[in-house]
From TrEMBL:
This is HMG box domain-containing protein. Residues 435-446 have a biased composition (Polar residues). GO terms for biological process: canonical Wnt signaling pathway; cell proliferation in dorsal spinal cord; endothelial cell fate specification; generation of neurons; heart development; midbrain development; positive regulation of cell population proliferation; rostrocaudal neural tube patterning. SMART domains: HMG. GO terms for molecular function: DNA-binding transcription factor activity, RNA polymerase II-specific; RNA polymerase II cis-regulatory region sequence-specific DNA binding.
Length: 549
DNA sequence: TAGCCTTTGAAGTGT
DNA sequence: ACACTTCAAAGGCTA
């Protein structure tokens, strides 16, 4: 039960969420066992030193060196693997790679310009980034990672590096390539074991020839690049960003990418790449008649969804995204302030990278590219629309075995575990202002339930009195999404809903889901469940206030 | 096969 | 300034 106070940045729940272990069944176990993992840190680091010296670590020896197997061995192994790889890659002048899935190269150092200090050590922000991913671990200091062959400031430190590292693209620090390490089950099929380094047993960065198959350039995929934070998000083969007309518009056009890097970047980022040779990809900047579609950077919630989707799907066998997203939406609210902060930070980096990749891009560019939704009649998106739009109750997507007859209990886990109230008050993540310098939106919004069929039909009766009118009133205004969140993020009092669980009446499907699906199982959330019960009940009031305005 | 559903957040447009 | 709209992911579903 470590760190139940949840005050620290290394919130275990957050860690758990972020890491997304392969075996979901171990999730809860890991939460409670993270302390042991923490105890193993010293062992990890010390063993890494030896390992880096020997450079011939085998999984067997690693296991032997391990003090003792613990339930959290996976965390241990991952951490260990990560640092081993970090050391090795540093020495090789190559990539860091996913601590989760072998065979997928990626760079998780956040600094766009200089992930390394002059002494070859990770920069503070890079360390922060790593520590964010591995909150329980001490990111190796300069001494640990320092290596003569490591990228030097000359390679990376400047905003405009003069000389590119053999494998380093100026943006690679933020360009990550891992795809599916969040998959709750097994690594993607393409992450074949052959990628493992035969010597060390540690996954190595695949050669471009090995990578190319991982990044198929289907015609449809042309024009897009994978998610720069791919290590965080399962991409399922779908690239993310596209390259603007004229090719890869790099902020530092003077820089030349070597074949290795360009193949990586181009195969993943360029819409016009044609892998003529397994080892050398040539970028063909053929002019498209159309402007390639550059997608918006993912926001915090989208990043969270991508990370957690597989987990939720695995847990409940749901595949319908609408239902999954509903679960994820509630889980998102159940995240602690620190947990959400991580995603806000990632999203901020996403936007940062995106803005650097596509300086002239604007979200406006994508307006109208997608089929316009037929919500013109916004007005009727209210009560009447409830029934019309919700012809597919998510309950139908739920496996029967998930159905339980104790909605009340489920409600509690689902609704009563919102983010901490303080989070709503203080935007913690304090996400650095983006180029737009916007204040970090409060994720802990008291956004009312959208006109959900179950909510409107089921919860209303129970919700009764106070919330019923407010919910309906707010539904129209809130239907327009979260842009209004900040304005109504603070619930105003809780009139009358103190004892009754009206708002706890959620859509049936969720009430029937296992609580673990609805909110992280961490003790923190259980605590939050109780401490913030009143807050959630007050949500409708905030809406009333807003609508009143 | 295009679009819907569903979520939150970012960023756009409109008033 | 505020309200509203669109899009970002995702995959089953529907017309």
């Amino acid at each position: 039960m470590p760190q139940l106070n949840g005050g620290g940045g290394d919130d275990l729940g957050a860690n758990d969420e972020m890491i997304s272990f392969k075996d979901e069944g171990e999730q809860e176990e890991k939460i409670s066992e993270n302390v042991s993992a923490e105890r193993d840190l010293d062992d990890v680091k010390s063993s890494l030193v030896n390992e880096s010296e020997n450079n011939s670590s085998s999984s067997d020896s690693e296991v032997k060196r391990r003090p003792q197997p613990r339930p959290d061995t996976e965390s241990y192994e991952k951490a260990r693997e990560y640092f081993s790889e970090a050391l090795r890659r540093q020495q090789d002048g190559g990539f860091f790679k996913s601590p989760h899935y072998p065979g997928y190269p990626f760079l998780m150092i956040p600094d766009l310009a200089s992930p390394y200090l002059s002494n070859g050590a990770l920069s503070p922000s890079a360390r922060t980034y790593l520590q964010m991913k591995w909150p329980l671990l001490d990111v190796p200091s300069s001494a640990a990672l320092k290596d003569s062959r490591s990228p030097t400031p000359g390679h990376l430190s400047n905003k405009v590096p003069v000389v590119q590292h053999a494998h380093m693209h100026p943006l690679t620090p933020l360009i990550t390539y891992s795809n599916d390490h969040f998959s709750p089950t097994t690594p993607p099929a393409h992450l074949s074991p052959e990628i493992l380094d035969p010597k060390t047993g540690i996954p190595r960065t695949p050669h471009p020839s090995e990578l190319s198959p991982y990044y198929p350039l289907s015609p449809g995929a042309v024009g897009q690049i994978p998610h720069p934070l791919g290590w965080l998000v399962p991409q399922q083969g779908q690239p993310m960003y596209s390259i603007p007309p004229g090719g890869f518009r790099h902020p530092y056009p003077a820089l030349a990418m070597n074949a290795s890097m360009s193949s990586l970047v181009s195969s993943r980022f360029s819409p016009h790449v044609v892998p003529h040779h397994p080892h050398v990809h040539v970028i063909n900047y053929k002019e498209d008649e159309k402007k390639p579609h550059i997608k918006k950077p993912l926001n915090a919630f989208m990043l969270y969804m991508k990370e957690m989707r597989a987990k939720v799907v695995a847990e409940c066998t749901l595949k319908e995204s609408a239902a999954i997203n509903q679960i994820l939406g509630r889980r998102w609210h159940s995240l602690s302030r620190e947990e959400q902060a991580k995603y806000y930070e990632l999203a901020r980096k996403e936007r940062q990278l995106h803005s650097q990749l596509y300086p002239g891009w604007s979200a406006r560019d994508n307006y109208g590219k997608r089929k316009k939704r037929k919500r013109d009649n916004k007005a009727d998106s209210t009560a009447e629309d409830f029934s019309a739009r919700n012809k597919k109750p998510c309950v139908q997507y739920l496996p029967q075995e998930k159905m339980i007859d104790s909605p009340a209990s489920s409600h509690g886990s689902m609704l009563d575990s919102p983010a901490t109230p303080s989070a709503a008050l203080a935007s913690p993540a304090a996400p650095a202002p983006t180029h737009s310098e916007q204040a970090q939106p409060l994720s802990l919004t008291t956004k009312p339930e959208r006109h959900h069929p179950h909510f409107s039909l089921i919860s209303k009766p129970s919700a009764a009195s106070s919330s019923s009118s407010s919910s309906s009133t707010s539904s129209s205004s809130s239907a327009s999404s979260s842009s209004s969140h900040p304005s109504l993020s603070l619930p105003i009092g809780s009139s009358g809903s103190q004892s009754t669980p009206p708002l706890l009446s959620r859509p049936i499907p969720f009430t029937s889901l296992h609580p673990s699906l609805l909110s992280p199982p961490s003790p923190f959330h259980q605590a939050a469940l109780h401490s913030h019960h009143a807050l959630f009940q007050s949500q409708p009031l905030s809406l009333v206030t807003k609508s009143a305005d």
